[in-house]
Amino acid sequence: EKGNYRHFMEKEIHDQPEGCQRTIAAYVDTLTDRTAVPGGLDFKAIERIQIVACGTSYIAGMMGKYLIEKLADLPVDVEIASEFRYREPALNAGSLAIAMSQSGETADTLAALRYCQAKGMKSAAIVNTVESTIAREVDVIWPIHCGPEIGVASTKAFTAQVSVLTALAVAAARARGRIDEAEEQRLVRVLLEAPRLIAESIQLEDAVRGIAVEVAKARDVLYLGRGPMYPLSLEGALKLKEISYIHAEGYAAGELKHGPIALVDEHTPIVILAPFDSYFEKSASNMSEVMARGGQVVFITDPDGERHAPAGARVVVTAPRCDPLIAPLVMSAPIQLLAYHVALQKGADVDQPRNLAKSVTVE
Ligand code: F6R
């Protein structure tokens, strides 16, 4: 039940430290600080990974690509299931198919999974419902342990999916000899810190509420990010569209000058997601470009990013400092809370947005 919260979505945002903690605990061994991925799959024997999914699960899959390719040097393709299933993609039997689906019942994701299996691929599923159709049909089930998600807009399932993918990336990196045992242990300890840091970033709710009053007046909002903050910018835009009915787009920040910069004016808030990582300087220069054209920037960063912000940066949300491995988890709460408080400002029904269903079992 909702307890003291007004909406399931609000409760589920606040449930994330616990949901991620329980999920991470199922993928690591806290006695040895090593990864312990259930299912006994040999990551050395896998040539490629093909992730298929829809909506927020697709965006989580994209985050998985960024994490797994960088850490484990294992190629990952991610595709929207409804496109994948009909376009006759070329596949290789040595690839592993991963169906990402909170419900485990999404029709297009199930069909895309069956397509992969028919090509002789081994399969796995990252699901919240282990009794679901998708879970029943795969070789390996990788559950998330965030508890049932009731709000139509996915929040805690997203961060739990990303938690699993982060653990898989570390495990694959170790299995493929890309990192040694000491580095695996360091990364596992970083991952185990994530729940506490997510809890800290949820504390930004008051700051975000103030910003939401301004954002709620907009007709369009742009979200920009680089590296793992690019998928997160897609997720921020999707959340805002779904529950506040404000048109929003997520873009790779480097794409700004290839089109979207034409949209920048004083009426269009630009949310820039940029912790102080190896991409920061580039994102900061995009921020300056936006400000030079009168754009209102909402800058979501960390303490070092705030210190190095270009002059004139006004609206800043400062998430806790963390290792880049877990930045996608720590930076999720601010964008979810922004969408939530903008929707409240607009009086929208957050848990039951118009035209949307929790589980899409028709194509
Ligand atoms: C967005 C959202 C949807 C789902 C999508 C896939 O907030 O919840 O985009 O992510 O319908 O659902 P599952 O993960 O159940 O396959």
UniProtKB/TrEMBL annotation:
Its EC number is 2.6.1.16. The keyword Cytoplasm applies. It catalyses: D-fructose 6-phosphate + L-glutamine = D-glucosamine 6-phosphate + L-glutamate. One of its GO terms (molecular function) is glutamine-fructose-6-phosphate transaminase (isomerizing) activity. Residues 39-178, 211-353 form the SIS domain. GO terms for biological process: carbohydrate metabolic process; fructose 6-phosphate metabolic process; protein N-linked glycosylation; UDP-N-acetylglucosamine metabolic process. The active site is at K358. It is found in: Cytoplasm. Keywords: Aminotransferase, Cytoplasm, Glutamine amidotransferase, Repeat, Transferase. It is an enzyme of class 2 (transferase). GO terms for cellular component: cytosol. Homodimer. Catalyzes the first step in hexosamine metabolism, converting fructose-6P into glucosamine-6P using glutamine as a nitrogen source. This is Glutamine--fructose-6-phosphate aminotransferase [isomerizing].
